[in-house]
Design brief:
CATH superfamily of chain B: Beta-grasp domain
CATH class of chain B: Alpha Beta
Mean pLDDT of chain A: 96
Strand order of the largest sheet of chain A: 3-2-1-7-19
CATH class of the largest domain in chain A: Alpha Beta
Structural class of chain B: alpha+beta
Mean pLDDT of chain B: 94
Largest sheet of chain B: 5 strands, mixed
Shape of chain A: globular
Largest sheet of chain A: 5 strands, parallel
Strand content of chain A: 25-35%
CATH architecture of chain B: Roll
Distance between the termini of chain A: 54 Å
Oligomer: heterodimer
CATH topology of chain B: Ubiquitin-like (UB roll)
Shape of chain B: globular
CATH topology of the largest domain in chain A: FAD/NAD(P)-binding domain
Number of helices of chain B: 2
Number of domains of chain B: 1
Helix content of chain B: 10-25%
Strand order of the largest sheet of chain B: 2-1-5-3-4
Number of domains of chain A: 3
């Protein structure tokens, strides 16, 4: 039976927000929200921060209490996997064999931890940090651990390191490239954060490749680097990025290229199927239309709002400004825009003061701004870049230049 | 427990008994009060938990912090003198009877 309902595969930030936004817009047809994790949808960012640190419990992690789904007639199916999309019949089949027909299907399948091809990753004491289950296990193990090795100096690895050092643990980070968070931040920001973590007692090995994880009796004992050096560990966190979950889409014949390929309305080649959030490769307005896949709450939620509006008859091209944040100990990093491909950086403020911003340019074009403990700069940056306005490198470096006025100025 | 009232744009009033130590944002989200998005989960990173405190009651809430002041620059609805980010308003006994107004939009 055809119907006009929406089936959402994935109950993370994007999937949840889509369901919530549809109801907010008065969408009255059935909504099924299918998640492969047990329990109610929850927020991921606090996992690597306050939740891991025991400062907040599960109640404050939840997107909404159970009653929300009931009151808004959102049919939540936790612990459920979709095994197949039948595009011709417009239905998905669950692993249980149950079929769910859809009017529109939204893939919000997210991403999963990348597991490096390292001998020993199966050892007890090797952990990841993406899901609530990952974090619950990690939290228990962290309490018992003394010596920790983190493989990968990205946001997650560094956020975890900050919490672990805060507990007085011995923490060493092994990073293949020559700097921290190198895939997403500029050199000055990398160096500032690495220095701050070092000052807190974290050890780094940059340009270092983990060759294997070794153990005894099934328990991890050390990480061996390609050069032969052994780093003793009773807990290893692997944080080397994620892989988008595109298999379901690919099996249904949809294009997948570092994410499920969608157009500027976040539609796949099938007019009845959209993809949003971490799993979607979309032409990004703020990256000259290049196919872009982002792992961010802002991206997930703004994608969801865009698709919800299209479903209720208010289509628009997706053009939201990407922004990101990380909290590492007392350091707050906020990024506005996409800085990939920048060839010049300009500092505003002095890193020695612990509060500064890095303006990232390609040629004369301002691509994005990283702010460290300078939230005012970040908010101005968001306004500035969202409006497509620019400031010159000279203006950015000039402490007397009024960034706030520039961000608020009318476009010329 | 202190009672806090949320008034939506359409005039809908919701009054909650909130345990001290909980934020006004958390209580709203947990009790299904629409109109607070709180995209960052309460880290003072997103400015989508914006509320307006009833003007006569401004003395009941603690002063605006530096980070909050900065983030208030980026609210989707106009910033007013009584604007606050509700993730930064930790409920205390002094807030008994507090009224907050929800803005037209958070995003």
């Amino acid at each position: 039976m055809p119907n006009d309902g929406v089936v959402i595969v994935g109950a993370g930030h994007a999937g949840f927000q889509l369901a919530a936004s549809l109801r907010q817009h008065g969408f009255a047809e059935p909504i099924a929200l299918i998640g492969d994790e047990p329990g109610l949808p929850y927020q991921r960012p606090p996992l690597s921060k306050d939740y891991l640190d025991g400062k907040i419990g599960l109640d404050l992690l939840l997107m909404r209490p159970e009653a929300f789904y009931r009151d808004h007639h959102i049919d939540l199916l936790p612990g459920s996997r979709v095994s197949e999309i039948d595009r011709a019949a417009r239905a998905v089949r669950l692993a249980t064999g149950e079929r769910l027909p859809y009017g529109h299907l939204v893939l919000a399948t997210g991403a999963r931890n990348r597991v490096p091809p390292l001998p020993g990753v199966e050892l007890d004491g090797v952990c990841y940090l993406r899901t609530l289950a990952d974090t619950d296990e990690l939290r228990d193990r962290l309490a018992q651990a003394d010596r920790i090795v983190v493989i990968g100096a990205g946001f997650i690895g560094l956020e975890f390191a900050a919490v672990a050092r805060g507990r007085g643990k011995d923490v060493r980070i092994v990073e293949l490239t020559d700097r921290a968070m190198g895939r997403v931040v500029s050199v000055p920001t990398s160096h500032f954060f690495a220095d701050a973590h070092r000052a807190a007692g974290v050890g780094f090995a940059f340009g270092a490749q983990a060759a294997r994880i070794a153990g005894a009796n099934g328990r991890v004992e050390h990480v061996e680097l390609a050069g032969g050096e052994r780093l003793g560990a009773d807990l290893v966190l692997i944080s080397v990025g994620v892989v988008p979950n595109g298999e379901l889409a690919a099996a249904a014949g949809l294009a997948v290229a570092n994410g499920i390929v969608v157009d500027d309305q976040l539609l796949t080649a099938d007019i009845n199927i959209s993809a949003i959030g971490d799993c979607a490769a979309f032409p990004c307005h703020h990256a000259a239309g290049q196919p872009t896949r982002l792992e961010a709450v802002q991206n997930a939620a703004d994608h969801a709002r865009c698709v919800a509006e299209r479903i209720v008859g208010k289509p628009r091209p997706y053009a939201a400004l990407p922004w990101f944040w990380s909290e590492q100990g007392k350091l707050r990093l906020q990024i506005a825009g996409l800085t990939t491909g920048h060839d010049r950086t300009v500092l505003r403020g002095d890193p020695a003061s612990g509060e500064f911003s890095v303006f990232c340019y390609r040629g004369d074009v301002l691509l994005g701004i990283e702010s460290i403990n300078r939230p005012a700069d970040h908010m101005q940056a968001r306004r500035l870049l969202a409006a497509g306005r620019q400031v010159t490198a000279e203006q950015a470096a000039d402490a007397d230049f009024d960034l706030r006025a520039a961000a608020a100025a009318r476009p010329v | 427990m202190p009672r806090v009232t949320y008034i939506a744009q359409d005039g809908t009033e919701t009054t909650l008994d909130i345990a001290a130590g909980t934020t006004i944002m958390q209580a709203a989200v947990f009790n299904g009060v629409d109109g607070i998005v709180a995209e960052c989960g309460g880290s003072c990173m997103c400015a989508t938990c914006h509320v307006y405190v009833r003007e006569e009651q401004l003395a009941m809430v603690p002063p605006i912090g530096e980070d909050e002041e900065a983030m208030l620059e980026g609210t989707a609805s106009p910033r007013q003198p009584n604007s606050r980010l509700s993730c930064q308003l930790i409920v205390s006994p002094e807030m008994e009877g507090l009224v907050v107004y929800l803005p037209e939009t958070q995003t």
